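Margin note from the TA: students keep mixing up input and output lines. Inputs are the sequences; the output is the structure of the whole complex. Example:
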Amino acid sequence: MSLISKLIVKPGSKIRLADVDPDFHGPYKSEKDAQKHLDQQSASISDLQKKLYAERKHSLLIVLQGIDAAGKDGTCWHVLRSMNPQGTNVHGFKQPTPEESSHDFLWRVHPHVPADGNVAIFNRSHYEDVLVQRVHKMAPGKVIEKRYDLINAFESTVHSNNTTILKFFLYISPEEQLRRFEERLDDPMRQWKISEGDYSERALWDDYIKAYEAMLNKCSTDHAPWYVIPANHKWFRNLAVGSIVEKTLKDMKMQLPKPTVDLKEIRRKYHQAKKEKL
Amino acid sequence: MSLISKLIVKPGSKIRLADVDPDFHGPYKSEKDAQKHLDQQSASISDLQKKLYAERKHSLLIVLQGIDAAGKDGTCWHVLRSMNPQGTNVHGFKQPTPEESSHDFLWRVHPHVPADGNVAIFNRSHYEDVLVQRVHKMAPGKVIEKRYDLINAFESTVHSNNTTILKFFLYISPEEQLRRFEERLDDPMRQWKISEGDYSERALWDDYIKAYEAMLNKCSTDHAPWYVIPANHKWFRNLAVGSIVEKTLKDMKMQLPKPTVDLKEIRRKYHQAKKEKL
């Protein structure tokens, strides 16, 4: 079974996160063991994104969700480091501003979907409205329940513009989260980020798992599937996400636009210009 | 004399591009010779951008101009490869859309200036309106002439929000441009980009030089200086731009925000949680 078919949440199926091992790292023993594959992948993604940008027929939207410290920022870096920054954009969705809150929950998201030829990453997304809002009961149960359908319809609209949507749930264990929090405590560059909430939210771990499972089970669709990425090992998380991005771009079977000019004629002109030092 | 003071267009001075050597590569013999400096620079810029993003008091706007094939895209890659993509954005300004043309020339630019803590790069910019528009007489001389002042006032407004503005004119020779055009001819990934205009615009080289000189002489201000970057050698172009970006970020004397929580107390809680396997 390929990595991709192992990690996808099959539309219509019911996933239980307890059945997923966040420590999973495929056939690789270590980062060193996977390095060659990671390097090949970067080179391949780099070429594919150039074609995507040149052809301007498809676009790619990547949605990242995961509990605090699951590695959303690191995943953005990894995916984008091989791409031309001009054709890419990351948008982080934090607590809504008053203006955002005074609109429907998809209003602030829609402007950031990628244009033809582009790649956009949502670092958190419209799914916050069925995650933190559900866990903290910030909206009535009925309202939350309706949002899953609204999200599916919204993603279908976006998909209708040749936008391929990939959604990655980065899954770490509570022990790994604690280990990462402790690392932050010792890193002067990151101490400012630490909040009381980091720790107190851990008490709601099981509620979050339930909310994640509802999101995965209700919103993994043919046009916008969810993937559960075992993310305790950062290098495996990168490799898994990269593999899915690479395969997805390849499947678009993109063609570079044909040259619009007579290359021979241009070559002749250049040759002449050099001779005459123009 | 430092590299920076050599490359800056001193506000109020008159620069002649004929006096600048696009082949200049400072004290370095080759890319290999500069590699260590380039690596140090990347590591330093990476740290500084993390501070910029954390502090959220300053922002940085980088404006790139240069003739076709001068290396604007490559410069974007180089500057951004060491930065967290979440805090950065590149915006390319192409031929204005009908909606853009139906507004003043700064209307399409303003929304893309960086927010506190962010870095934005303009790949081409509002300066197109005093470059291509001047060379091709797409607006009356009087209108163009007034734009220099309007640009200075606009950049002063942007600067008033703690946005540091760096403007880089990437300067290559006509021979180097021709060499790069020829490279494109032989690269299947880039042949689609070649247009008749690439070549025909070369006939207007002297007019472009005059327009660039006017831009450099009228719009290099204390709050938004222009730098002329000798760009025949890509590695030196990257090193020069990187040096100025690094120095500029350092001069902001950024401070990481103080932790908002009692780190000792958090550490104690984590320790307890581990013991009790919470």
